[in-house]
Design brief:
Elements lengths: L15 E4 L15 H13 L4 E3 L4 H4 L1 H8 L9 E6 L7 H15 L4 E9 L1 H9 L2 H10 L3 E8 L3 H9 L6 E5 L10 H10 L3 E5 L13 H8 L7 H10 L6 E4 L4 H12 L8 H16 L20 H13 L3 H10 L14 H5 L6 H12 L6
Parallel strand pairs: 1-2, 1-8, 2-3, 3-4, 4-5, 5-6, 6-7, 7-8
This protein binds NADP nicotinamide-adenine-dinucleotide phosphate.
The site of NADP nicotinamide-adenine-dinucleotide phosphate has 28 residues, from strand 4, strand 8 and helix 11.
Length: 382
């Protein structure tokens, strides 16, 4: 295992962290973790040097933390730093903060959560938690020892990321989505560098884009990978690209089989900042360009089309659809689409086409929206 640095802390994280969000399950039911197999995976990772485990209140329908509490018995808890997250969207009142944290400590069978994150911050969650004085509360929890260090995970635009980083000078770390397709998405490379410059450790999630960069690969992408002088699996290419960045503290992967754990542990042992060659980086850039060529709707996310008079979240709907086609992954796109509020979905479109007059790319948005709803709406695909 390779070890890296973690912001300003005197502690070295393993290059690979264990994400407890995609554990093997029984009967395809995310709430039924296959505990024997998941425990073997976790123990394998720790026995091979992984020293950071990431969880959240909500993973596996709320069962992941209790599973982890059991799986870390027998001396494993002492060998790792434990990270978990406050369910930002469930918190309604100040008293909820203690309630969730205390429940998490119990589920995890621990007295301290080493790294506690405000989960999935975006403008809305951040504003709400800030108004509930979450930072004062967290300082008390750090002082009484229930929390070791405070951080946040993030899903919104770069500007919101910068605002959150700047809002508090005791963040120890943040967690961002980052992979070779998402350099300019959410926090992106700008956010990675901004946070690292400010002394925050940066934990990376979705390095394989939730698996999209490793499964069901389009033939054109496979053909490009086949041209590499040094052969790697698509998952290894994706992970190595992230590890190549010196600002990255550790990379989480939510592995779903023991084989994936073994592969990613092996990848991590060969990783390091600035270890990819110029030719390898150029190949990754060609793969990125090829994926972009597969993008069906040329939306640049400029948002000139907004606000839609009917409330459709046009850029997000188009982004989800583009992901479905580029990565050949309709299932994940359906999940994201159905997470949108009803009024933000494509079927709220009345075909007024006001957005089309505003779109600099001259996209036939109204027609796309009708097609996309047909494809992604869960109720039409059951
Ligand atoms: N805070 C947040 O808002 C948030 C959001 C997302 C994730 N996270 C955390 O970050 C962790 C990492 O994110 P992620 O799970 O999306 O990471 P990821 O590594 O991008 O995706 C994991 C998926 O990639 C595939 N995979 C992993 N290793 C592979 C290999 N060697 N070969 C082939 N495929 C492989 C598997 O997909 P298949 O199962 O299809 O094979 C696996 O389920 C999560 O587990 C979670 O702990 C946090």
């Amino acid at each position: 295992m390779q070890y890296r640095t973690f912001g300003e802390l005197d502690w070295k994280p393993s290059a690979l962290g264990f994400g407890a969000m995609r554990l093997p399950v029984i009967d395809d039911d995310p709430g039924k973790i296959s505990e024997l197999e998941a425990t073997r995976m976790l123990h394998y990772a720790i026995d091979h040097g992984v020293n950071y485990v990431d969880n959240a209140y909500s993973y596996h329908r709320g069962h992941s933390e209790a599973f982890l509490g059991r799986a870390l018995q027998g001396g494993y808890r002492e060998r790792v730093k434990l990270a978990t997250k406050l369910p930002s969207w469930l918190v309604k009142a100040p008293k909820d903060l203690n309630r969730y944290l205390n429940e998490q400590l119990e589920r995890l069978q621990t007295e301290t959560i080493d790294f506690y994150l405000l989960h999935s911050l975006n403008e809305e969650h951040w504003t709400k938690l800030h108004d509930l004085n979450v930072l004062d509360w967290a300082e008390k929890a750090m002082a009484d020892g229930r929390i070791g260090y405070l951080g946040f995970s993030f899903h919104d635009q770069y500007e919101v990321f910068q605002e959150i980083v700047d809002a508090y000078d005791r963040w120890t770390f943040c967690q961002i989505q980052y992979n070779y397709m998402d350099e300019e998405h959410q926090a992106g490379t700008r956010g990675l560098k901004y946070a690292a410059d400010k002394g925050l450790a940066v934990v990376v999630m979705e390095p394989i884009r939730g698996g999209q960069l490793a499964r069901n690969l389009p033939r054109a992408i496979m053909e490009l990978w086949d041209t590499a002088a040094r052969k790697r699996t698509p998952a290894d290419w994706a992970l190595q690209w992230v590890w190549n960045h010196p600002e990255v503290s550790l990379v989480l992967s939510g592995m779903s089989t023991l084989e994936q754990v073994a592969q990613n542990v092996a990848s991590a042992s060969q990783s390091g900042p600035a270890t990819l060659t110029a030719d390898e980086l150029a190949l990754i850039a060609r793969v990125r360009d090829k994926y972009r060529e597969l993008c069906p709707v040329p939306c640049t996310q400029c948002k000139y089309c907004l606000p839609c008079p009917n409330g459709v979240n046009i850029p997000r709907v188009l982004e989800i659809y583009n992901g479905a086609i580029m990565y050949n992954d309709h299932n994940r796109a359906r999940v994201f689409y159905n997470w949108l509020k009803e009024e933000e979905r494509a079927d709220a479109c009345t075909q007024c086409a006001q957005c089309e007059e505003l779109c600099p790319q001259e996209i036939g948005i109204a027609e796309w929206l009708a097609q996309i709803h047909q494809l992604l709406d869960e109720s039409q695909n059951q």
